[in-house]
Amino acid sequence: MSKSKSQEEQHWDAIWINANIATFSISTEDYGVMENAALAIKDGRIAWLGSVAEATQFKADETHDADGHWITPGLIDCHTHLVYAGNRAREFEMRLNGASYEELQKAGGGILSTVKATRAASEDELLEASVKRLESLKREGVTTVEIKSGYGLELETEIKMLKVARKIGDNDKQVDVVTTFLGAHALPPEYQNNSDAYIEHIVDDMLPAVHEEKLADAVDGFCEGIGFSPEQIERVFTKAGELELPVKLHAEQLSDLNGAALAARYKALSADHLEYISESGVKAMADAGSVAVLLPGAFYILREKQLPPVQLFREHAVPMAIATDANPGSSPITSLLTVLNMACTLFSLTPAEALAGVTRNAASALGLEDDRGTLEIGKRADFILWDIDHPSELVYMIGANPCVSVIKNGIKCR
Questions:
Q1: What whole-number distance in Å separates Cα of residue 265 and Cα of residue 217?
Q2: How far is Cα 322 from Cα 342, in angstroms, rounded to an integer?
Q3: Are 133 and 96 in contact (CB under 8 A)?
Q4: Dist CA 349 CA 36 (whole Å)
Q5: Model confidence at 64, in pLDDT bands (50, 70, 90)?
Q6: Which of 132, 246, 332, 334 makes the best surface tag, with the fewest CB within 10 Å?
């Protein structure tokens, strides 16, 4: 590359040299590898990428030697339920003794036991517990995380959860928090046998109040036989549209109610789980540009047998994201690296697909693809240094954490 006058005059805030970089750019295949490379930042954004030899033409206030380490985009966990109180270890034991997910729900366990504990907890108690869970994700290089409500099922607690999630993001220099209102997660005890009335409460009272306080970046729901019908979810989505809030959906986890196709009609950012999705549902997602968020942790914990149709997603070019689904019942997992391995061993994703699922495609699942998820000029300078010989090691290893350093908005956080 010839050196232009504008390049000669460039002065960066910092530059990392002697790195191997996996950009995960959409224009590249596999990892988007750049060997013996350098990355420069200016004002918290990526300003330049190129070879180490080319980097000598620039000046920077700080020069960091990556010492041959690999650099990837900061990891993104695009589906979590991190804010809650209590735990469900006893429920886990019951499930292993033969109780089904549906049986636990109908007996008043499952989500409702977490609802009871979360309603009783103070904001400070929820914050303390949630920050501990987040710390595990941070140690593995997570720089953006989505957090859903949905364990309040009443206005006061739903707002409390979302305020805690916002506070986590405001107070943490390493992680941006995206919040999602999930009031339509389960039927609260106050509305047993009257699900339509609860949906009306969500539409008329809860959603407007959450929006008024600017606590939610998106709206979600649980479309299942043990959750809410497509018709009920559509009422929630219609209101979300009126409030100009994007939507996403828990769909086709336990059965096929055509929830993914419903989400696609509303141009959903994503549909999540999707073990039972039909090919028509996949096509609808492809047409809408929605991301398929796969959650192998829940599949593993619940010992499910129905695999999501990964090959159909490939054939119809539906982007696949991967997330922990961190929650107290069906996926008590706070290790995104472990879930990467699960995505490959259980769902047969390739390592490159899995890693794209926690970078580029995870950003798309949150509507943030223009800002992060790949290492490209102009994007946020969120990236990780790893002590590995190849990116596939991040998927291959179980229980190891080769994270060397975390850079968030161009600043070293870890």
A1: 19
A2: 10
A3: no
A4: 28
A5: very high
A6: 132
CB atoms within 10 A of CB 377: 12
> CA-to-CA distance for 255 and 211, rounded, in angstroms?
31
What span, in angstroms and rounded, lies between the C-alpha atoms of 203 and 207? 6
Q: Which residues, 6+ apart, have CB-to-CB distance to 387 below 8 Å?
A: 69, 402, 404
Radius of gyration of the chain (CA): 21
Greatest C-alpha distance within the chain = 72
Closest CA to 45 of 382, 360, 381, 408: 381
H-run or E-run covering 243: none
Pick from 370, 343, 367, 371: which is nearest to 356 by CA?
Answer: 343
Span 182-238, pLDDT tens digits: 999 999 999 999 999 999 999 999 999 999 999 999 999 999 999 999 999 999 999
CA 67 – CA 156 distance, rounded (Å): 51
Return the structure tokens found at 211. 């929006």
Cα(362)–Cα(374) distance, integer angstroms: 10
Percent of the chain with pLDDT over 70: 96
Is 364 in contact with 355 (CB distance < 8 Å)?
no
**Beta-sheet pairing, 383-386 with 403-408:** antiparallel
Report helix, strand or coil for 53.
helix
CB 181 within 8 A of CB 153: no
Structure tokens that stand for 298 in this block: 């829940």
Q: Whose structure tokens read 């729901």?
A: 221
Task: Give the bridge partners for 293, in sequence order.
Answer: 272, 321
DSSP of 76-136? EE-S------S--HHHHHHHHTT--HHHHHHTT-THHHHHHHHHHS-HHHHHHHHHHHHHH
Q: Distance (Å, rounded) from C-alpha 98 to C-alpha 109?
A: 14
Pairing of strands 11-22, 59-65: parallel
Q: Tokens 């988007």 correspond to what residue?
A: 32
- d(CA 240, CA 19) in angstroms, rounded, equals 44
